[in-house]
Each structure stands twice: as structure tokens, then as C-alpha cells.
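Ligand-bound model needed. calcium ion.
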Amino acid sequence: AKEGGRNSFQFFTQEMQNRLDARMALEQGLHRALQRDEFVLHFQPQVDLRSGRIVGMEALVRWQSPELGLVPPMQFIPVAEESNLINAIGQWVLNKACATLRGWLDAGVPVVPIAVNVAASQFSDQEMDELVRSTLERHRVAPELLELELTESLSMVDPEASIALMHRLKATGIGMSIDDFGTGYSNLSYLKRFPVDKLKIDQSFTRGLTSNPEDRSIVTAVIRMAHSLGLRAIAEGVETDGQLRLLAAEGCDEIQGYYFSRPVPEQAMLAMLERGMGM
Ligand code: C2E
Ligand code: CA
Ligand code: CA
Ligand code: CA
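Prediction:
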């Protein structure tokens, strides 16, 4: 038993070392990616369920690595969050979203607001509202064209400071939504004080919508609650006709998901906007 323990200890340290090496390599890769401008944004349309029109789009970051190819965010955002790179990446995303809007506006494209994801640690920067304001000004983009997707977890460390920052952000004229709603520690007494416009129903609930009565009850309840708080409800991860029908029946305002479109590169999003594409 002793020898086994010793072997598994060595195995464990080797494995830990490998993981540390991989993480360090990834961290260095992300540093270089920022310097070499290797990040790209893809866009996924958000569709109004009543009119069938595109009313928004979410910007989703990818890393176009010369060595690794197109790396999805789940493979680098967590490391970026742990290594303080997330703020620089978040700033890049915000700037790129506004630059893209400016380019489309200049080309006469009928644009819709872009929703940008905000990591919790970006929100501990109390100057976030100044960053948003100066970025919008730099690109001469109206605040109504920008929405921030916040998660419930961002208010955990210092709720009062977070709520104050949210109000300052609101005062800039931008929109705000709560992302992945229902998966965090939803403290409803905070929700009431969040100056947000929209609740995004997490895709884990959408997935079970047609097969799982509990998921359906949760989705129905979230839509009702959103409406009674004067907020819009958007369901993400909508893939099937059945999910779409149920959401429409429950009065959900917007949908986002593969059913309508996967996240696509800038040119493909532009084509959808120019066609005025709807359902
Ligand atoms: P999220 O904010 O919940 O974004 C939605 C994710 O669901 C996206 O994955 C999207 O491609 C995927 N999705 C959309 N529709 C469907 C569908 O119908 N079915 C399924 N199965 N999936 C769908 P993606 O692009 O891989 O992004 C994953 C996560 O990475 C995001 O989850 C977000 O938390 C994070 N992320 C992406 N971009 C950024 C960013 O710029 N900043 C930060 N902080 N996080 C980001
Ligand atoms: Ca999101
Ligand atoms: Ca989400
Ligand atoms: Ca998510």
C-alpha cells in the first residue's frame, strides 16, 4: 500500500507539472495574442419573437492562433480570468465591438445593438463606466448601440459598489442584461436593485424545455418575473422548433441560438443585417 501511495504521489506531481506547463504556455500565448492582435469577434443574432426581426447581436470572442487554429473562449477565458489578462481582453472586445459598429454605420448598414460579455473581475474596476464612455466616444457610437452582459456573480464581492457602478453605467445610456440567469446565486433582493433591461435565460433551461417539466416551469417563471419587473426576457441556446414554440407560447420576447444562427464572423453577420434577415 505504501509503494502504491508513493507511485501515485509521483504520478500526481508529474501530472500537476504538466498542467502547470500547459497553463504557462497558454498564458504566454494569450499575452502574445494581445500583442499580435490575434483575437477575433464572432456575432450571434438575437431575434424578436413577435416580429421575427434581428434586434441585437452578441459579440463572442475567439482566439485565431497561428499554432492552434481557432480557439473557443471556454479554452482560454478561465485562464485569462485567473491570470489578470481578462481585463485587457475585455477592453479589446469592447473596443472591437465599437469599432465594428462604426465601420457598419459608415457603410450605411442598418445596425442593431451589440451585447458584450463582461467578466466579474472587470466589474471590480470602479472606472468601468469611464472606460465605456471613452470607448463609445472614440468611435462616435451612440450608447444605445451597446449592451453589457453581466453575470449574477459579479456582485458577490462588494454588492453595494457593484450596484453603484451599474447605476453609473446605466447613466451613460447603454443597455444591460443579466447573463446565464438562474445559474448563479440569484439573490432576488439584489436583482430588484439592478438597473438592467433584460434577463437572459440560461441555455441549460432552454435545453430541457420540451422534455423536462421542471425546466419548463423555471423558464415560465423567469419570463413572468422579468415582465413583472419591467424587463425583457431572452432565451439562449434555442435549437429546435419545439423550444421556439413553447417560448413563444410563454411570451418570451427574444431568442438566440443555433435554430436561427450560430455565431458567425463579421462578414456573415453583416450580410444578415443587410438582408434585413428575420425568421
Ligand atoms: P455565454 O455568454 O453564455 O455565450 C453563449 C454561448 O452559447 C456561446 O458559446 C454560443 O456560441 C453558445 N450557443 C449559442 N447558441 C447556442 C445553441 O443553440 N446551442 C448551443 N449548444 N450553444 C449555443 P461560446 O461562443 O463558445 O462562448 C462561451 C462562453 O465564453 C460565453 O458563454 C461567455 O461566458 C464566454 N465568452 C465569450 N466571449 C467572451 C468575452 O468577450 N468576454 C468574456 N468575459 N467572456 C466571453
Ligand atoms: Ca453572454
Ligand atoms: Ca449566457
Ligand atoms: Ca453560459
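Residues 2-35 form the longest helix (34 residues).
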